[in-house]
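re: that complex we talked abt at group meeting.

here r the seqs, copy pasted straight from the sheet so there may be weird spacing, ignore it
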Amino acid sequence: MRKFFSISITLTLLTLLYVYQNVEIINIGYGITKQEQLLSTYLDEHKQLVYNLNKLESPFTLCERLSSESIELVEADVQNIYYACVKAEQEKPLSPRISMLDRFFDSITLTAEARDSK
Amino acid sequence: MYRNINRKRQLIVLFLFCILFICLILRVYNRQVINYEFFKKKADIQHRVKIELAPERGGIFDRNNRAFAVDTPIESLYAVPREITNKEEVIRSICELIDVDENIVRERINKDKAFIWIKRGLSSEETTRIKISKINGLYLLQETKRSYPKGDLLCHVIGFTDIDNKGIEGIELYYENFLRGKYGWKSFFRDARQNKISSYEEFLPAKKGYDIILTIDEVIQHTVETEMRELVKKRKPESAMIIVMSPITGEIYAMCSYPSYENNQYSKAEKEDLKNRCITDVYEPGSVFKVLSACADIDTGKVKPDDMFFCENGQYSVGKRVLHDYHGYGNLSFSQVIQKSSNIGTVKATAKIGEDDFYNYLLNFGIGQSTGIDLPGEENGILRNVRTWTPSDMTTIPMGQGVSCTTLQLADALSVVANGGLLMQPYIVKEIRDENGNVIKKFKPKIKKRVISGKSADTVKEILKGAVQSGTGKKAILNGYYACGKTGTAQKVIGGRYAEGKYIASFMGFAPYKDPELVVVVSVNEPKGDYFGGSVAAPVFREVMQKSLRYLEVPEES
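got the structure back, here u go
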C-alpha cells in the first residue's frame, strides 16, 4: 500500500511538473511574440527613416533647400583648388624575438611552414 | 444478513462504476485512436496557422550606393464581412476615416466572404485613425510598398512596380527575377483568444531579393536632368533625350528623356510619358550621322582628310534629286566637309567607297540592330538591306536620311571614334549583390567588335575636334578641355513625308580630346524657335560635359 501511494504521488508530481513546464513554455512564447512585434515595429521605423534620409539627400531636394535659403553653389576655379596630401610614416619592420630555447627546439624538430604567396 | 446486503450493494455500485469507466475508456479510445486524424485536423484548423512570408524586394542603387528604389512598410485595410453586423454604420465610418469610394466599400462589404480588401497602402494618418477607431470586422495587414526616394530622378531607367510589388517597367521589370526574392512560410499555434504562441513555431525565412547596383552616377544624372529642365523651359520641345556614356567601358553614367513622370505616382502619368525615349524613339539622325560616313570613308583608305571636294556652291543635281547645303561652298577638304557639315561633300566622298562597303560599315556600327542594353523596350532602328537600295539612297543615307536609329545607338557608334575603333556593349547594371553585400554577379566591359582601325579613329577624332573649334559646333567649346563632336539638324518624317518646319536638333560629342572619358549625345525633338543642332543641342552638351568632367576630376588639357 505504501509503495502504491508513493508511486502515485511521484507520478502526480511528475505530471504536475510536466504541465508547469508546458505552461512556462507557452508563457515564454507570448513573451517572444511581443518582442517580435517590437522588433518588427523598429525594423519598419528603420526602413522609413532610411527612406526619409535618402529623400532628404536627393539632389533636387538639396537644390531646393539651398535655393530657398538663397545659397548658390559656385564651381571653384581650377587655380583655386589645392590638394593636400600627407606622407605616410614609414613603418619599421617588426623583427620577431625568438628565445634560445625556441631556437634549440626548432633545430631538432621538423616543421612544415606555409610559404607566403605573392 | 445485514452484512450480506451491504456487500451486495457495494458490488452493484462497483459494477456500475466499472461499466461507466469502461464506457469512458472506449470513448477516449474512439476519440484518440480510431478518429485521431479527424479530430487532429479539426484542432489544427482551429489552432494551427500557416502563413506565407513575403520577401523584401531588393533595392536599386547607383554606382556610389545611393538608393533609388527601396521597400517601405505600409498598412493595408481589410474586412471580414461575416463579422460585421451593422454594415451601413461601418461603411459610413470607413469613408469618414480614409479616402475611399463609398460605393466600392459598400459593394465589397456586402459580399459573403471571409476576407475582402478595403484599401491597400494607407497613409500613416489613415492607419492611425483606423487603429484608434477599433471597429469590429476591420483589420490592418502589414505589407511593403516600393518607394523611390529620389522622386522623378532616373524615372525611365528605374521603372516601377505594381500593387503586388512586381516590376512592370524599366530595371524593376528587366531584373524582376533577381529583385523579387523568395517566399518563406511560418507555422504556429494560436490559443483560444487567437494569440500567437511562438514556442512551437516552425518557419522558413523569406529570402530578400538581390540588390541591383547601376552604372549610373546620381550626380551626373542630376546634372543632366537639371540641364534638361532648362532646355524644356527655354525650347519647349515635343521630346528630348540626353545620354552620358563611357566610351572606354560602355557604362551608362546618365540617361534622361523628356517628358518624364514621378515613379511614386506613375498611375497619374500619361502613357507617352512612361517611354524611355533614349531607347524607344527611332528617328532620322541627320548630319550627326556624317561621323559614321566619315569613319567608313577614312577607314577604307579611299578618302583622306586633305582630299578636296567641290561642293557645287550649295546645289547639286544627282539623278532625280537636288541636294542642298545650308551654306553654299566651293572646294572643301574632306575635313572641312565634315566640320562645315556639307551634304554635297559627304555624298561625293561616300560615293567613292561604294554602297556595299558603306552598308557593311553601318552594320558594324550597330545601325539597324539593338545594342542589347539591359533595359526593356529597346527598338532596333531601320537600315534597309543594301540589296533594296536605289541609287538615290547613296545620296541620302550618308547624310543621315533614309536611315533611322535611337539616341543610344548614336552614343554607342560615337564611342567607336572616342576609344580607338571598338564597338562597346552599352550596359546599365554594374553588379548584383545579396543582402550581405556579397557580389552575386558582376558585369564587365565587353568589346563587341573592332569597327575601324585606331589610326582611322584618330583621324576622325581630329576632324571632329575641328568641327567644334571652327565648324558648326562652336557652342560646344569647353573650358579647359577640347571637345570633339558633330551637330545635326534633321527634318522630321511624318506620315512618310518630310514635314515642313519640324526638326530634330542634335549634338553628339566626346571629351577630353586626348583621352576621352565621356560621350554625350543630346537630341531635341521639335524645339520652338531656333531649331539648329549647333544652337539648341550644343550648349546643352557643353554644360553637361563641363560639369561632368569637373565632377569626375578629369585633369584639364593644356
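couple things i noticed - The two ends of chain A are 84 Å apart (CA to CA). Residues 1-71 of chain A form one domain.
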